[in-house]
Amino acid sequence: MKIEIDINDKYADTEVAIRAPRLTQDIERLVALMRMIDMQIGVTKDGETFLLDANKILYIEAVERKTFVYTEGEMYESELRLYEIEQQLLERDFLRVSKQSIVNLRQIKSLKADINRKIRVTLSNGEQIVVSRMYSDELRRKLGLK
């Protein structure tokens, strides 16, 4: 793979061009990562690809080597692994709350202490997610509760 960067004042906007003999999974993954920079995530549902605004995401979950993205009323699948999405969204009010889940902090409606220092989080749509004790202190810190 060849990467070429041309920085010059003559350009009004940033442009990325991909030239390849065929569309591969690596190219699809690269495009997905670039869309995350613009706060859009490429997801699929029923064989159709959607560009999803990150602020509409309630939480992201990994189940049996698949990554699912949940919004208010929809569930999508992502080609990216959970850790790849986490890296892109860490600076954008998302936090890992268990080995298999990342939550959008702006979608949290309430918190309730659970057994063994876990926290039960209720999201804006009423769904509940359990925050493991390993991540509970970080959640409280990010929300300004500690």
Give a quick precis of the structure.
The chain has 146 residues and is α+β, with helices and mostly antiparallel strands.
Describe the secondary-structure layout.
Layout lengths: L24 H13 L2 E6 L2 E6 L5 E5 L2 E5 L4 E4 L3 H8 L4 E5 L2 E4 L3 E6 L5 E5 L4 E4 L1 H10 L4
Antiparallel strand pairs: 1-2, 3-4, 3-7, 4-5, 6-7, 8-9, 9-10
- Fraction in beta strands: 25-35%
Compute the CA-based radius of gyration.
Answer: 18 Å
Q: Tell me the strand order in the biggest sheet.
A: 5-4-3-7-6
Secondary structure: helix percent: 10-25%
Major sheet attributes: 5 strands, antiparallel
What is the string of helix and strand elements? HEEEEEHEEEEEH
Cα distance spanning the termini: 47 Å
The number of distinct helices, counting runs of at least 4 residues, comes to: 3
Average predicted local confidence, pLDDT = 89
- The general outline is elongated
* Alpha-beta classification: alpha+beta
Number of strands: 10
Task: Extract low-pLDDT stretches.
Answer: none
Notes on the protein architecture:
- With 146 residues, the protein is of the alpha+beta class.
- 21% of the residues lie in helices and 34% in strands.
- It is built from 3 helices and 10 strands.
- The protein has a 5-stranded antiparallel beta sheet with strand order 5-4-3-7-6. A 3-stranded antiparallel beta sheet has the order 8-9-10. Strands 1-2 form a two-stranded antiparallel ribbon.
- The chain starts with 24 loop residues before the first helix and ends with a helix.
- The relative contact order is 0.12.
